[in-house]
Structures are given as structure tokens and as C-alpha cells.
Amino acid sequence: MMTNLFSIFDPSTNLMNLPMNWISTILGLLFIPYSFWLIPNRHFIMWNFISKKLHNEFKTLLKNNYFNGSTFIFISLFFFIFFNNFLGLFPYIFTSTSHLTMSLSLSMPLWLSFMLYGWINNTNHMFIHMIPQGTPYILMPFMVIIETISNIIRPGTLAVRLTANMIAGHLLMTLLSSTSTNMSFYMIMILIFMQIMLMIMESAVAIIQSYVITILSTLYYSEVN
């Protein structure tokens, strides 16, 4: 039963022995018509509104580390994760963010680039950051070990947080949809209502997780400067 349950996350669409499910990671771009970038409309206004809000939020978090264009990578990361999370709620569309392969491919390069930039350009700051201000001398060796471990597991926690939230919601919807056999009409209507509410909740989770991952990445970047 558990094997069949988790098999909904297995890539299963092949073309010439090549997995085609991962194409869904760029599927969001296909829903943006060419006229969207040229003619101002309500979708463009909404996109521009969200981008400006995110820009102001990330600019505040970066503080003295902000320079022109520095928020673009985090805004792009937000929309990329959001499209993959949201499109995964539609039937027969592969949810790439429910795999650690995808989430680690996003978090690991970001974390590694932040660490390399910090240790190469701000070595003294990185050493100072390992020991919080006011730490007793006897606890300093332990704080260095704790801070080092917390830095190393950061890409893993980002990836697991995103993957676990995507898997949990999809498993709940799968479990609810598989219990509709041999039920009364009223129970089926209650089940449909629960499915609708769960879909609304998962839509909110898709947005929240995109925002959380992006905010944490921004904070990690601000710490290395």
C-alpha cells in the first residue's frame, strides 16, 4: 500500500527512453503569452505588483548588502518555485519540487556560492560569525562546532522543508480521493468539500513555501557580508 501510495511521485512519462516529467519545471513559462511582456494588462500589473513587493522586502533584508539587481535572483527563485508548486496541483502534471533531486539542485548551489563568496571575500567576518557576541570563553569551542554544523545542514534543511511540504499535501489528497468507494451520497459530498478545502490550503502552501525558501536564502546571503 505504501509503495503504491508513494508511486504518485515517480517520474513515469518517457519519450525515446528519456524522462519527460522534468519538463514540467519550465512549464510555467508556456502560460505567459508573448503579448504579456509587451502590452500592459491586468496580469502584467499583478506580476509587476508582486515583483515590486518582493523587491522591497528583499532590499530591506539585504540592508547594506543591496546593490542594483541583487534582488533579481531571489525574485526569480520565488517565481520558479511557485510555478512548480502550483502546477503540481493540477492532474497529470509532475511535481518536481516533491523530489529532493530538484530541491537540492536549488538550495545546494545557492548555499555553496554564498559560502565561497563569504570565506573568500569576508574571511574575518565569517570567523567572527561563528561565535555570537557575549559568548563565555569556555563555550567558544562548542559554539564553533554548533555554528559549523548549522551552516553545513542549511541546504539540506531548505530542500527537506520544501520536499516534505509538497509530499504531505499530495499524499493527503491521494488518500482522500482513494476512499470514495462504497460511500453514501452525503459522505461523498463531505469528501468533495474536504478536497476543495485541501486544494485551497495546498495553493496557500505553494505560495508560502516559495516565500519561505526565498526569504531564508536572502538571509543566508546577507549573513556572509
Counted up, domains total: 1
Q: Would you tell me the structural class of the helices and strands? A: mainly alpha
C-alpha geometry:
globular
Task: Find the count of extended strands (DSSP E, 2+ residues).
Answer: 2
Number of helices: 8
Percent of residues in helices: 55-70%
Give the CA-CA distance, first to last residue.
49 Å
Widest sheet: strand ordering: 1-2
| Low-confidence residue ranges | none
Beta-strand residue fraction: under 5%
Q: Which sheet architecture does the biggest sheet show?
A: 2 strands, antiparallel
**Oligomer class:** single chain
Helix and strand succession?
Answer: HEEHHHHHHH
Q: If you average the pLDDT, what whole number results?
A: 79
Radius of gyration: 21 Å
InterPro entries: ATP_synth_F0_asu (IPR000568), ATP_synth_F0_asu_AS (IPR023011), ATP_synth_F0_asu_bact/mt (IPR045083), F0_ATP_A_sf (IPR035908)
Transmembrane segments: 20-39, 72-94, 100-120, 127-146, 188-221
Membrane topology: Multi-pass membrane protein
Subcellular location: Membrane; Mitochondrion inner membrane
Describe it.
The protein is mostly helical. The protein has one domain. The chain contains eight helices and two strands. It has helices spanning 2-6, 42-62, 72-87, 100-121, 123-129, 140-152, 154-177, 185-223; strands at 14-15, 18-19. The chain has a two-stranded antiparallel ribbon. Helix 4 packs parallel to helix 8 and helix 7 (154-177) runs antiparallel to helix 8. The longest helix has 39 residues, at 185-223. The mean pLDDT is 79.
